[in-house]
Fold each of these.
Amino acid sequence: MKSQPPEPGRAPDAATADARPTPPPLRTLAEPVRERLALAVGLQAFAALCGVVPFIAVSRIAGRLTAGVPADGSALWPLVTLACVSGLVALVCGTAAGTLAHIADNDLQLSLRRRLARHIGRLPLGRLTGRGTGEVKQAVQDDVSALHTLFAHTLLDVVSVLAAPVPILVYLFTVDRRLALVSVVPLLLGVFLFSRAMAGAAAQMTEFGAAVGRISAAAVEFASGIAVFKSFGRGGKAHERFVRATEGFADFFSGWVRSTLLTSTAAILVVAPAVVLLLLTVLGAVFVTQGWTTGAELVPFLLLGPAVAAPMGVVGPRIQQIRAGQAAAVRITELLDAPTLPEPTTAVLPDGHHVCLREVSFSYDGNTDVLSGVDLDLAPGTVTALVGPSGSGKSTLASLLPRFHDVTAGTVTLGGADLRDIPATELYRRVGFVLQDVRLLRASVADNIRLGRPDATDEEVERCARAARIHDRAMELPDGYATEIGTAVTLSGGEAQRLSIARALLADAPVLVLDEATAYADPHSEALIQDGLSALAAGRTLLVIAHRLPTIRTADRIVVLEDGRVTEQGRHADLLAAGGRYAALWEAQRTAGPDETDGAAHHRSAPVGADHAADDIREGSAR
């Protein structure tokens, strides 16, 4: 579509956007509910003003009763009625304001969490793995909750405490200007002390949010990684990062509190109602004994005077909540503004399943290449294994096929179509993956298997579960395939891996990326997983990340990566005969810990070859 020229007298959109100041993140996020929040603020302000009227009416009644004049019902009852009516109106308006603010906040939370979920689902996987899932948890849960506190509670509280002193002061100045000025002194002193205590709070709140984010990330890592630590006999090490994060937060927060303790405590004391009342009582007594005012005129100050400075005792903590909400809005906005993997403007569908990488380079930070000049072909129905030392780029290269990242340079094509031109839904129908770190949904066993094909029948689900060697375990669960995972039932690592294999079998993608799926499995689970992988591998194009070389010696092609470059490729026997890097890796593994027997090694190599176990799936599962 051709862009339309700007109308006469109107600047182009881009220029207008550049000239227009960017609104604060908090205001931008609140825009969908701005009108309802404004109405709630108006109702709360009116409720606060009405709430002052009963105190003024009571002070007038008290003044009349203490003036030495006989009580006159015709003069008192209107004041009593005014106090009751205004108190009722304040109650109704305050309740309506709170209800409206909570409804608006509830809609905003739902909208924000939906936006975050949609946006996070389109982010490159490296954006999430690089910064940790704690960032996502903090934004979706903690930061949205901080906005709830701000919009549903703090906003109305601040309006209430700031609106009430205005009519009180106006009334007190009409009674006695000198005592009214005395009532203002604690307020001014409290403002000064609070401003001193809050100096530098913006930077502190930023660090506070960062510290909470580090705790969230460490907690997620602790919960998800403890099994791995324990499997290597290092259970005591599993919580070290979490402890360091909590200790760092405690040190930071303690230092912050110590630096503001004296001034913040003094600020709270000088505006405390008891202190203000004592001040007004003492000075009021002096005024009365000196004949400067009457006892009747002192009564309004004793009733209403403490309410003049009282807001400062509430505003201080509320300022902290406002800053926390602002910081939360900044983090949410930053996550929502994070660039997503671009969707193609013109969709291209692959013609076949041949995978081709040409002059592929990739960098996480835009400076240092993790992969450089990689050329690779994955022919349909073949097995290609990636081997190499740690950090050589194996996982990065494999992650390009399911488009967890986009290449920095070069192209990755599937069936002649650039991956960047293939719609995501079409890509994931053709490219599947089974990774070491399995993530299961809090859903039934059947729904977890159906993730790639929600319309699959129960018979298809069971057939794939049998081939993946997870059917028997599913039938042992309380509700069989309907059992919800993550509540009363938790699967072991090997069981979760077999369930993910059943998921991949049901999806039936012709191209598969396999990480070392048995890295943390016990021998029994490993054998079952290998059986499932044998079924999964049959007839498909595989790219396998291999750490134990005996598992891939029957592969059609073995590719050796070093420092992000392909240094060798070929079949197992040819690479051994060449005496290069692969032969050195093979010899190092054989010397460090040879596999038990040739038969065991052959069994482990089964996932990368065609196995008759796949026959169970092929019948009736083709779509």
Amino acid sequence: MIYHYLKPRMARIIIQVIIKLSGTIVELLIPSILSAILDDYAPIGDLHGVYLYGAFMILCALLAWIGNITANKMATAISRDFIMDVRRDLFSRMSSLSARQRDQLTEASINSRLTSDTYNLHAMVDRMQRLGIRAPIMLIGGIMVALMLDVRLTLVMLCAMPFLAAIVYISSKKGVPLYTRVQEGNDRMVRKIQESMTGARIIRALSRGEMEREAFEGINSDLSARQQKADLTMAFVSPLVNLVLNIGLAFVILVGALSVSRGTTQPGTIIAFLSYFTIILNSLIMISRIFVICSKGTASARRISEVLQLPQDLQPSGKASAAASPAHIAFEDVSFSYHGGIPALSHISFTLPKGKTLGIIGPTGSGKSTLLSLLLRMYDPDEGRILLSGKDLRTLPLEEIHRNIGVVFQNDFLMKDTLRENIRFERDYPDQVLFHASETAQAPFVREVGLDHLLAVKGRNLSGGQQQRVLVSRALSGSPDLLLLDDCSSALDYRTDRELRHALRRDHGDATLVLISQRVSSVMACDDILVMDKGAVIGHGTHAELLKSCSAYRDLCRLQLGGDAA
């Protein structure tokens, strides 16, 4: 999957490899030139040869420097563009995930994959272009030139190679699973931070700061332990490589010294050979570091690919054909549960004609918001079907379902942006439409402060009631055919709530309205009311009918309205 993003850049990568390869080969010539100076020209006092080869050494050093800088700049540009495309597609795919898929991945894991995982992948691609080309060429080239200088010394050095290969193989095999566990621990850390930041006010209000710190410390300690285990496992690589190579270097010096004392090897050859041994040593150290980076990058690449390869969920299935029904919305024996757990909705059936108003009331956890999620096709029902204008929702594209719907969720959000952008939400509506929507939503402050007024993160510089009215303005600005309001007046006083309902009937009387509320006063004027409890409909009818037939509704009225609640 990741190769798909590298393929369009293969021409640039090949050019970068050629430049890197050329610079590395030129750099490999320098010790050989030094050997020639020391063995062939310096002993006989040939200064012309010394100066000529010395200038050639300087030229090779400059060419290698220019080549490495050019190749590294190209590698940086390629890896930057590569990861930018990965992040773009990953964000796009995450934005199109169904609610069920997001529940399975969790928000914390999604954030972690989009940040730390993409960083690890970027580091791997960047280092592979920089060190992944240079280190093997320096290693292989160094061994080849060393063989031409002295076969015996090279064979002594090569005896260490099987041990080095075993170290690198074992460490890389263990590294990927360990770093995968580190990223999973990072997901838990992100999730805890998100929860603490979101619930900061209630944590302070209930004096639960110490408890939260202890919970965070437990997650932090677990992540630290996972990171420590992974890092210690990989940290053994470099010291072991150095140990094996230093032992090999000691044997090379010993054998070389004996060869010089016997007159079978020139001192310049030994100096050049030691230079090549240092090159080989540094190359192997670089390779060991590459394996550490690749272990992290590979684990992150798998997590990113897992998201990119998720199938498109909630696609239209079957042919959309409208049934002969006057209902705008119809639920036919709908049942649903989250991830196969306790049923959230059980055998829900009702119809709502176009232009009518449906009120849904019930205690917390009765399934009201879940019903709204199914109507928006964030989830598909486990049983039964939902019809919109006579068409099964499962046969309609999501864009068609959402095109003419205005919605305010129970837990909605405001961006750090102007009121204009928060209300129109990337839709091309003139300011007059936005002002009209805000007036209907009982938000006169929008006109007072102006549409250019900047909101803080999550609208923190507005009161709770003002936030809700801005959200209602957003839903109304498109003049929707279907308006879904999920407890959107919980922060409003009773008078403002009443005026909002009157304004909705006046300005959007042709729209079908589904109103979820905890207040009887908000739903009592609706054409139809559903009373829900534990995922089931326990009462269905008008306010007057429910007062006679539903004891739970009657109790709610008596509790909230007092008297006989008639």
Amino acid sequence: MDFFTFFVVIEAIGILSFPLATIFTHNLRDAGYSLARPLGIMCISFVAWVLSSLHLLPLNAGIYAGVLALGLTAIYIVHRYPRDWRPTRDMFLQEGIFFSTFILATFFLMHKPEIFFGYSEDFMNSAFLQSILRTDFLPLMDPWYSGTGLSYYYFGHLAAAIPILLSGVKAGIGYNLAVAAFFAIGVQAAFGIGVNLTERRLYGFLAVFLIMISGFTTGFVQLLSYVSKTEIMQFHTFAGSFSEWLVSFDFAAATCVIPHAITLYPFFTFLQGDLHSHFLSIPFLLVLVGLCLDLSRKFSLPAFSAAILVTCVLAGMNIWILPVALFVIAWTGYYATRKKAFLLLIGLEFCVFLALLFLGGIGVVDPHQRTDLYGFLLTFGAFALLSVIYLAESHKFSREDILVAGAVLVAGIISFSLHFPLAILALFAILFFVRAWFHQEYPAAFAGIALFLIVFCEVFYINDPYGPPFERMNTIMKFYLQAWVFWGIASVYFLYRIKNRVLVAGAVLVIGITLVHPFCSVIAMPNADFMGKTGNLTLDGMAWLKEQKPDEYEALCWLSMTADSGDVILEAPGDAYTYSSRIAAFTGFPTVIGWRTHEIMWGREWPEVEQRCTDVDRIYTEDENTDALFEKYSVKYIYIGETERKKYGSKLDNLIQNDGIKLVFQTGTTKIYRVI
């Protein structure tokens, strides 16, 4: 029942949003139907955020106000702009794609529903989501740093909370339904991109495969290693049967082929079941591409305004997307109008880049840390090969192409001699921009954007608290995922332009290679112990906790029903990717200090974080002078569970003897005290 209620809400948002989408997309074949759902969620989220942030309405009421505004807008557009609003065959096809994807995604997540602490950011994202579901007014308070505002972007979690609040499903179930829904929304948007690029449905399905499903070529190399019984690169052999190899497939190995970095692709982020910002932003990035595709054909102020608004939303979801989103808008505006005013935006971005470089916000990569050719090919090899096939098919080179090709050859020799093999990608990027500009092949520019993002990661990194040798880990993870989306879109167009049957057969083979890793991961990931294993098929992200830690589950449920919004629940300081900081993750109530390293990544200073850790340790281990600390952090409840017993042991006896607290709940060895 939860599934269908959630689906009805998402479907209603899509229907109400379609008239608005048509205003922005006059030049697209599907009239913006593939973009309607994410546009609607964006609009409702934006209205709710504004009303709640200004304290005009509580968040729940703001969401309903957003739905009402969307509905009234739809009614106005239907009456103001008469057209045939009856559903078309393409609309029914897209509905079938969305619904079937939603069902399949939900079915997979029933096998891996855990909101788990290991390997992913589930605890963090669940804490954000639960806090949003409990809050009345924004901005959101930090659930892992009580008493302060959240310094991390959370607009994507707000967007995910919209259908959860409207459908009324339980938060633990809504978390997984939101993951499935946003993936299905991304699939529909990708299908629309393919159809609107080529005017053919076949390439819509191809866009779904290349953008949302295909994976790293690493999976094929791992398969070769198993079949040949030979170690290839860093991939080891496996002695068991093929079915045993599938179940134990090392899906994580593909994400670590670049030393001291993590790489992801969209389908893998879905399989993790992680409602994180880099996953949530993918459908909205595709919306931006769809709007820019419309602008490239004929510039219009409504479409341009919508693109700007989507960019603002993307910045609130994932600030890492902002630079490339602004560049895409500026490039598209200049491409469509030839007005140099759009180049000013690109110039302004470049000035900001220089300022950040001068001020230390952007660092320079150590030459010894650069990605080698193998790492690049194991990650983007399929897209690179499809691009080469496209260039080979385009045998009628212009003078500009020949000059660029010669420069590429010379640069390739120089870059390899300087041990900087990926430097040549910059010239390939220029080649694609040349084709986009001089040959009127706008989609080719997306390949150029992807290549520039990859080269940027080889020269610079965004300076965050990660120190050497992990200083560019976040930069690669965030920018490579964006590069994947852009290069996937360009590859759809490249395949559309290829007519030679031999080259088409080669391209099909390449696509088949990219499906090995996703297919094997679908089989292996639910069976991985470190992902958390729930005994029964369910969508409840807390089910594993009920099965494996029943005392903690009952205590957290009691807190959820008893405590008031904003009550601070004390628990032991947390370490990343361990079973800690679970109060906010499963209830939404804030704690004094959660996962410490995450707070550092969000801009806190080590002395402040360590002071909170010391204060919490004192409360748990001392029986005197704790009243001032209770008051300092507004502590309402003290939680003593598995993590606290392991950390403090017999020192907890000092806390229990404190006259300022009272036992209010106990199940097994898990206890909750209330501060008097």
